[in-house]
Amino acid sequence: MAVTDISLDRAYLAAIWLETLFYGMNIVLFFSCMFVLVVRRRTPRVNTFLVGIAVAMFCFSTCHVFLGFYRLIMGFIVLRDQPGGPAAFFSDVSIPANVAKVGLHTVNSIIGDSVVVWRCFLVWGRDWKMCAIPILLVCGSAICGFGQTVFFARGQRYHSAFAHPLVLWNGSLFSLSLATNVVVTGLVALRVWYMLRLCGGTANFRYWRVLVTVVESGMIYSVALICEVTLYFLGLNSFYIVYDPIGQLTGIVPTMIIVLAALEMTTNDITSRMTKSQRSGPRFRSGITATTATTDETHTIPLDTMVFADGVSTFRERKTIIPTVTFEDPHRQTDTLDLKRAEQGGDGAGDV
Asked: Where is region (Disordered) located (predicted)?
């Protein structure tokens, strides 16, 4: 059964429309990230490293959407009367604007993948062994990405991104990037599920923690990459509808992870708070009082001032804490009084 495809010019127009929507989300998220990292920061100093990464990804995303609009205007307005029309213009991969766009996409993708790997590194307790394979995959993606950019710049005779020499570079890049995100997503999701289940069981695994898991692991980006790779290897022009918006997702997903880390809403923070609450045990609210009845009177003692004895492990230690109570026989007391009176009476008779 043949798969129905759309023309290249229509695919590119739909791709730019979707990319602008994602760019609007990227703008809101970027300024929210700056507000959290700079204005409402929880550290004495601004984390220049995270701020620099967020600014760099936003700048690359902005340049990416700007180049997309430039190609849109050139293809549909300036060069629309050229032989082949807009479809021929968009199929030429060696146009400088397209080469620059591919290069920016590669750089932003590498930065985004590195942020996801960094999150995996932190989630697994700073264990580099768990991140060895993702790091190698990121390095492979960088090599294929920059190689793809150079090949696009020199490939003036290729008028399709689905040409066989280009498929080798594109396929390698997309596959390595997908493998990186699938591996990291699996590692982070597994660790998150294990930590939350260890702390409170499935009862504490609420829906908002599932959302945190999805964002923190970069699962959104992985799903988009699966669609991209599938459409590309099928040779469909619909591939562009996913490819261009991914240029914004490469900045959105890492920025969301940075915001979670700045707001202390990551898995490590949630698990730490749950562990502390379990260790502290039951607490009483301030202002609540307990009434203690005694033999003399009834008085109120604030719970904040009450001292609870520690647990006693042995019976001998418990015996030393329990106060000793002596019970006396009333008949024995009466016999003792009669004996004393008899002795006093005998003494008085002798004196007389």
From this structure: 333-352
**DSSP, residue by residue, 218-232:** THHHHHHHHHHHHHH
Q: Which residue has the higher pLDDT, 205 or 28?
A: 28
Q: Is 245 left (phi over 0), alpha (psi -120 to 50) or beta?
A: alpha
Q: Which residues pair with 298 in a beta bridge?
A: 293
Q: Could you give the CA distance from residue 260 to residue 253 in angstroms, rounded to a whole number?
A: 11
CB 53 within 8 A of CB 107: no
Backbone angles phi, psi at 186, to 5 degrees: -65, -45
Q: Dihedral of the CA atoms 60, 66, 71, 72 (nearest 10)?
A: 130
Interacting residues of 101 by C-beta distance below 8 A, sequence separation 6+? 64, 67, 68, 71, 247
Q: Which residue in the block uniquely carries the two structure tokens 């620099």?
A: 52
Distance between CA atoms of 8 and 114, rounded to whole angstroms? 32
pTM of the model: 0.70
Cα–Cα distance, 156 to 60 (Å, whole number):
25
pLDDT at 313 (0 to 100):
39
Paired sense of beta strands 298-302 and 289-293, if any: antiparallel
Cα 234 to chain centroid distance, Å, stands at: 33
* DSSP for residue 81: T
Q: Cα–Cα distance between 97 and 114 in angstroms, integer?
A: 26
**How far is 69 from 289, CA to CA, in rounded Å?**
68
Distance CA 164, CA 332 (A): 114
Tell me how far apart the alpha carbons of residues 42 and 68 are, in angstroms, rounded to a whole number.
Answer: 38
Tokens of 162: 């689905």
Residue 219 CA, distance from chain mean position: 10
CB distance 134 to 120 below 8 Å: yes
Q: Topology of domain 8-278, per CATH?
A: Rhopdopsin 7-helix transmembrane proteins (1.20.1070)
Residue ranges of domains in the chain: 8-278
- What's the rounded mean pLDDT across residues 280-305? 41
| Tokens linked to 19 | 């990319």
Q: Helices 267-280 and 207-217 sit at what angle, rounded to 10 degrees?
A: 140
- Which residue is listed with tokens 């042995």? 314
User: What is the sign of the dihedral through the CA atoms of 124, 130, 135 and 138?
Assistant: negative
User: Residue 301: pLDDT above 70?
Assistant: no
